[in-house]
Specification:
Helix content: 40-55%
Protein name: Response regulator
Largest sheet: 5 strands, parallel
CATH superfamily: Response regulator
Radius of gyration: 13 Å
CATH topology: Rossmann fold
Strand order of the largest sheet: 2-1-3-4-5
CATH class: Alpha Beta
Order of helices and strands: EHEHEHEHEH
Strand content: 15-25%
Pfam families: Response_reg (PF00072)
Number of domains: 1
Keywords: Phosphoprotein, Two-component regulatory system
InterPro entries: Bact_response_regulator, CheY-like_superfamily, Sig_transdc_resp-reg_receiver
Number of helices: 5
Organism: Undibacterium flavidum
């Protein structure tokens, strides 16, 4: 059964509260309402582990103080996460490129990078890949 935006479950992992709210608002504008947020990597792993329905899409910041995006991707690989992964960063293209390699090496379904500030068009383009 093919899903649409309204059916998707999304987990946002970012230590910046403003970014979490901003990205959540963009997702709601796309029609996605099943949104779980986590303030940083450790809370993101805990939210993933306790979720009864695993996310279809994971939006993860790369620069976080407790567990960075690289470590988070490795942990998702260990958990055999099969949903789509979108990495977010305000750190520039080099960091985003490195993170995309890590995501691919950890056997993630890598949907792409989004530079901050995140745009609705970028989000829509990346998430569309999950919907087919």
């Amino acid at each position: 059964m093919r899903k649409n935006y309204a059916d998707l479950n999304v987990l946002i992992v970012d230590d910046d509260e403003f970014q979490v709210e901003f990205v959540s608002d963009l997702l709601r504008e796309l029609g996605i309402s099943n949104i779980t947020t986590a303030d940083g990597g450790k809370k993101g792993l805990a939210a993933f582990d306790r979720a009864l329905v695993k996310p279809d899409v994971l939006l993860c910041d790369i620069q976080m103080p407790d567990i960075d995006g690289f470590e988070f991707m490795n942990a998702m690989g260990e958990r055999k996460f099969t949903g789509g992964v979108i990495l977010m960063s305000g750190q520039g293209s080099r960091v985003l490129h490195s993170a995309s390699l890590v995501a691919q090496l950890s056997r993630q379904n890598f949907l792409g990078n989004i530079a901050k500030p995140v745009s609705k068009e970028d989000l829509k383009e990346k998430i569309q890949q999950v919907l087919g």
